[in-house]
Every structure is written in C-alpha cells, then in structure tokens.
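Students often ask why inverse folding is considered easier than folding. One informal answer: many sequences map to the same fold, so there is more than one right answer. In these notes we will look at a single instance of the problem. The structure comes first.
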C-alpha cells in the first residue's frame, strides 16, 4: 500500500471513466482573460514645476511614468541641465 493514496496511473484511469482529462495539450488550454490582449499603459498627466526662489509652475505633460515625464518636460519646455535637476514633478489626480 502506498502511503500517499492513489497512484498517477489510477488517477488517469479514473479520469477516463468520468470523462475528465487531467492533461490537456497547450493549444486547448483556456486562456485567462488578463493574458489575451494587454493594452499599453495609459499616459497620465503630470504637473511640472521648477524650484527657483519659490516653486514656479512650468506646465503639464502627459507621460506613462515620472521619468518619461521629466524627459518630455525638459524637451518641451526647453530646460537646461541645471534647471532639470530642480524639477518638481507630481501626478495630477483625475
């Protein structure tokens, strides 16, 4: 007698009797709904300000994340390297 119950062969025989298959080919397996067609991330709106004597509003940009928002703001608003280090970027709530 096996200590862990029935063997794999017994399971396969039992599944044939019931009409259930335990092993399915890859092309017949159901695809979960989240894996079918993933959409690219939607761009968010980011508020861009720069630190001078006080915080000065520069504008808004749309990007997927904070790093790409910084790059987009630097090119769109023609910021220099030393101004780019003083940027304050925050996500605008919807």
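Output (designed amino acids):
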């Amino acid at each position: 007698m096996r200590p862990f119950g029935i063997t794999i062969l017994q399971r396969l025989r039992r599944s044939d009797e019931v009409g259930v298959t335990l092993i399915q080919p890859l092309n017949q397996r159901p695809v979960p709904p989240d894996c079918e067609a993933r959409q690219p991330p939607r761009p968010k709106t980011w508020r861009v300000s720069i630190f001078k004597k006080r915080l000065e509003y520069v504008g808004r940009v749309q990007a997927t994340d904070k790093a790409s928002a910084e790059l987009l703001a630097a090119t769109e608003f023609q910021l220099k390297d030393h101004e780019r280090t003083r940027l304050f970027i925050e996500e605008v709530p919807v």
